[in-house]
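quick one: flavin-adenine dinucleotide bound model?
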Amino acid sequence: MSPRLLVVGGGITGLAAAWEGVCAGAEVTVVESSARWGGKVHTERADGFVVEHGPDAFVAYRPAGMALIRELGLDGDVVTVNPGRTVSIRVGGRMHPIPQGMGMVLPQRIGPFVTTGLLGWRQKLRAALDLVLPRRLGEADVSIGDFLRARLGGGVVECLADPMVGGIYGASLDELSLDAVLPSLRDNERSHRSLLLAAWAQGRGARAARTAAPAGAPASPFRSLSGGLGMLIERLVQRLTDAGATLRLQTYAVSIDPLAGGAPPTRVRFSDGSDAVFDGVILAAGAAASADLLADHSPATAAALGEIRHSSTAVVTLGYPADAFPTPVTTQGWLDAGPAPASGVTVSSVKWPGRATDGRVLVRVFVPDKVALRTAPSASTPAGAAATDADLLAQIEPYAGRLLGATRPPAFWRVTRWSEVMPKYTVGHLDRVRRAEAGLTAYPTWAVAGAALRGVGIPDCIADGRRATRAVLTALAAPTDPTEPADPTDPTAQSVHTQEPSR
Ligand SMILES: Cc1cc2nc3c(=O)[nH]c(=O)nc-3n(C[C@H](O)[C@H](O)[C@H](O)COP(=O)(O)OP(=O)(O)OC[C@H]3O[C@@H](n4cnc5c(N)ncnc54)[C@H](O)[C@@H]3O)c2cc1C
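yep, here:
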């Protein structure tokens, strides 16, 4: 008999887990508490715009994303960032192009770093001190902010690293974990002592690889799909349905209980009052929902998941007629080092092909809590992700419109709120992941997967969902001693990291 798998959560992690299950011949059920598949991946097509309410891209250098796209036959729909992109960082109200050859936080070329106006001479000289400083890291995890400030000074943190990395997590670099978010920095210090020397060596390698790459290979690591990332969700749902999976919206798991000790099968009760028995369960519904479901049987896992903090963000989408701009908009956007009401702006219609018809201009503005706090909200004018839609628009539209040169308000707008759902990998995150995994060793046919644990990027979520299903199926095929991890040889099980793209 095929193993019966339940996947809880219908975001990209859960759907990828389900896909891995049907590919392995399992009988798969997916339950999703909301009325829509995809979780944070949510594309709306309206008024000639392709609006991404959540993510708008994934990185190609993490292979799980492109691999799934190829399996689903979507490779012909992959789009890449339009060439000739200009992206800036706004510091103290002035726009500065991101220096050529910037990695995630470190300059991989000397010339553009020396000449950029992003940093003053003092800040550049302080950064150069890194070339002679001894190694600083001990064994313990530290915040990225503390580490970079000690090696390169505050200028690099505030003007480059914080806008570039902090925005991804909606968090300050002073709380984010070096080992979970940018472990390459630890490797760099170990191998080269100086982060700048390591970055320059990587830059030489990257340039050699580009020279060797076939002509026409895209320079940008970012990819999307012609109709938005929602295409990936639509295709997954279609292929899962075709394969006979049971997909249930507006249904959530209320409890999971092993029928006998830690051994399968598992009885699951659902929100509609029904219950069913499954051989394996993959929890891909976020840290809070997974912690609730595991509290009775694995309090250690529930506690570790409960310690993972989350931030909120709002995405404000603005659609303009092209003649709202006296001169065509050519920038692809900017990151704002503040103070400002937003952490970044993407001009989607310039950045990607096919995001707006008739040359109209589509703009996405990111409003995280930490930026909102800097704008000194008052009771009468609440700011940021806590403000009403009208309040947000009243702040954001003049900010983005003025900097883009709009002479008229947008004809189209959307406000999307993501409240307390952006996992923050704060210092000690890897220890929390280890404790969450260790707490589940007695239940090898249960797995927890998703953005809260081993990477927030879409390819990471896909890889993690698939890993979780493989681990559960392995445990079902060869039941292990419950004191052993389900799949201790799986190399992906411990990896949580943001890799550094070269810009
Ligand atoms: C604004 C924004 C921009 C982003 N930009 C990018 C980007 O450009 N590139 C990138 O790679 N990543 C980006 N990300 C991150 C990425 O989108 C997420 O990390 C990823 O989509 C998370 O997927 P997930 O399936 O783990 O979680 P989710 O998408 O949160 O899915 C979890 C699902 O579980 C459901 N659920 C919750 N509780 C239950 C329950 N009890 N029973 C059943 N179902 C339940 C939820 O309704 C949800 O649908 C962005 C995120 C946001 C918010």
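The pocket of flavin-adenine dinucleotide is lined by residues 8-14, 31-34, 39-41, 54-58, 252-253, 284-286, 289, 313, 315, 418, 421-422, 450-451, 456-458, 461 (CB under 6 Å).
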